[in-house]
Design brief:
Layout lengths: L36 E5 L4 H28 L2 H28 L1 E5 L2 E6 L5 E6 L3 E7 L2 H6 L1 E8 L12 H6 L3 E7 L1 H37 L5 H5 L2 E3 L6 E3 L15
Antiparallel strand pairs: 1-2, 2-3, 3-4, 5-6, 6-7, 8-9
Helix pairs in contact: 1-2
Length: 260
C-alpha cells in the first residue's frame, strides 16, 4: 500500500505543501505500491455551481411574470412546461455540476501527475514527470476575483497555450493532465514545478547510480567497457551516482572516496 505521508522520513527536499493540500481525498487504488503520494487536492466548488445558479436566478425572475400572465391566457399544460424549463432543468444542472465537482481529484506522486474525474464512471489521467513538456495556467476575470484557475500539463506534441474546460479534452487527448478550477493556481503551479524539478533530479541521480553499478560490475567481471569508460574521461560515484572526472579521488557531492 502506498505511503500516505507527503514526504516520509524527509526522503526528498520537497517544498512546503501548498495550502490547498487536502489529505485523504485522492483514491488510493490508483497509487502503485512503489509510489509515494506527495500532494492531493480537489477543485474549488464555487465555479462549478455559480454559473448554473446564476442561470436559475435569472430564469426564475423571468418565469414569475410569465406565470402570472400566462395562467389567464394559456392552458395549464403550457404553464407546467414552463416550470419544467425555467425551474427543474436549472436545478438538475446545479446537481450535475456538484456531482462533477465531487468526482474530481488531483494528485502528485513520486513518479507522476494524476487526475481523476467522473460521476457514474471514472476517468483516470496521468503522465510521468519526464513526459511533461509545458505547464500552462488559465485564469479568467471571474477566476482572478474568486481565486481559482486551471492548470494544464502538456506532453510532447502539444505546445500549450491557455486552457479552460473547453480545452480539457485537447490536453488529455494528447496524454496530458488538467487540474480544473483549482484554488490559488499561480502559487500551486509554482509548487508543482518545484516538485517536478525535485523528482527529475532524483531520477537523474538514480540513472547515474544504475550506470555506475553497471560499469563497476563490468570492471569486476572483466567485460569490455563502453568507449566513454575506456577513454577514462569520467567515472561515476558508486554511492550517489554523481559523475566525476577520471582523476578524481573524492566525490564532490557525497565526499566518498573512489575505490573504497
Amino acid at each position: 500500500m502506498a505511503s500516505r505521508s507527503a514526504n516520509p522520513s524527509g526522503r526528498w527536499s520537497l517544498p512546503p505543501p501548498h495550502p490547498s493540500y487536502l489529505p485523504e481525498v485522492f483514491p488510493r487504488e490508483h497509487i502503485s505500491r512503489d509510489e509515494v503520494l506527495v500532494f492531493e487536492t480537489k477543485p474549488n466548488l464555487i465555479p462549478f455551481i455559480i454559473q448554473p445558479l446564476i442561470g436559475l436566478i435569472v430564469l426564475v425572475l423571468l418565469f414569475f411574470p410569465f406565470f402570472f400572465l400566462a395562467r389567464y391566457y394559456v392552458d395549464l399544460t403550457c404553464v407546467f412546461l414552463a416550470i419544467l424549463f425555467f425551474i427543474v432543468l436549472p436545478v438538475l444542472q446545479i446537481i450535475y455540476s456538484y456531482m462533477d465537482w465531487m468526482g474530481r481529484r488531483y494528485a502528485l506522486t513520486s513518479d507522476k501527475i494524476m487526475a481523476v474525474s467522473g460521476i457514474l464512471s471514472r476517468h483516470l489521467y496521468q503522465c510521468t514527470y519526464d513526459k511533461v513538456q509545458n505547464i500552462t495556467l488559465h485564469q479568467g476575470i471571474f477566476g482572478r476575483m474568486i481565486g481559482y484557475g486551471t492548470i494544464a500539463f502538456w506532453t510532447a506534441g502539444f505546445g500549450g497555450g491557455t486552457t479552460s474546460m473547453g480545452y480539457e479534452h485537447q490536453v488529455t487527448g494528447g496524454g496530458g493532465v488538467v487540474w480544473l478550477r483549482v484554488n490559488d493556481p499561480v502559487n500551486l503551479k509554482r509548487y508543482v514545478e518545484e516538485v517536478v524539478n525535485v523528482f527529475q533530479r532524483e531520477k537523474k541521480i538514480q540513472d547515474y547510480k544504475a550506470m555506475a553499478a553497471v560499469l563497476t560490475e563490468s570492471q569486476k567481471a572483466g567485460m569490455p567497457m563502453p568507449d566513454a569508460a575506456i577513454s577514462g574521461a569520467f567515472k561515476f560515484c558508486p554511492s550517489c551516482g554523481n559523475k566525476a572526472g577520471a582523476s578524481a579521488v573524492f566525490c564532490e557531492k557525497c565526499g566518498k572516496r573512489f575505490g573504497t
